[in-house]
Amino acid sequence: ETGVTQTPRHLVMGMTNKKSLKCEQHLGHNAMYWYKQSAKKPLELMFVYNFKEQTENNSVPSRFSPECPNSSHLFLHLHTLQPEDSALYLCASSHRGLAGVPPSYNEQFFGPGTRLTVL
Amino acid sequence: GESVGLHLPTLSVQEGDNSIINCAYSNSASDYFIWYKQESGKGPQFIIDIRSNMDKRQGQRVTVLLNKTVKHLSLQIAATQPGDSAVYFCAEAVRDNYGQNFVFGPGTRLSVLP
Q: What is residue A97's predicted lDDT score, i.e. its pLDDT?
């Protein structure tokens, strides 16, 4: 176990459904990430939260809405998804520095992922 | 026609042999690299990392080599075991004000033959 948990592990939803993915880290990290891993592309960074603030949004469609209520929890709210959104959604966490502080070298710890299928 | 999926390079090795997995990175300014292993049904797991001020780093049964001149990274696994079967990703750090994000390679599937 990496200390990062994700629920649910599997999710099947219709295009009109609303669902949420949950991630929790027990490592005391201050940054959390959502990645998309599909069969057609390498691992893609979607969102980054640093000290609960979103610091990166990699041109992700608005039908994906992240929420980070605290440094240990991260959600990905899903609404009116498309079949091409079917993928493995991975959450990760790491230590991250403060703006202006010399760069850090910190690995990211991944959860097991949620396998999402959009019908 | 439409591709049915990402074509992962595949490396097949005999159990007990050494494996070498290669990765090319794109940013000459990248100063930190990680190799991850992803087994079926699991998320990527850290194997070993290396900073750009080094050209070699060794772990338990694994060695990472960094050639900055040609922007190439390799992972060597000694005495490959069935449990090493997985997809291996290299990741290069992209700096921002807070630390780094990672750009991941497409991955290489390692199959260990009995």
A: 66
Higher pLDDT, A103 or A2: A2
Contact of A54 with B20, CB cutoff 8 Å: no
Q: Measured between alpha carbons, how far is B36 from B39 in angstroms, rounded to an integer?
A: 10
Partner residue opposite A41 with nearest CB, options B6, B44, B99: B6
Please write the tens of the pLDDT for every residue from A36-76: 999 878 899 999 998 777 777 778 999 999 999 999 999 99
Residue indicated by tokens 């070993």: B48
Instruction: Locate the chain A residue with the closest alpha carbon to B3.
Output: A40
Q: Determine the residue among A35, A43, A50, A96 to mutate to test chain B binding: the one whose Cβ has the most chain B Cβ atoms within 10 Å.
A: A43
Q: Would you say A106 and A93 are in contact if contact means Cβ atoms under 8 Å apart?
A: no
Residue B84's SS3 state is helix
Least CB–CB distance from B5: residue in A40, A55, A90: A40
Residue with tokens 């990741």: B91
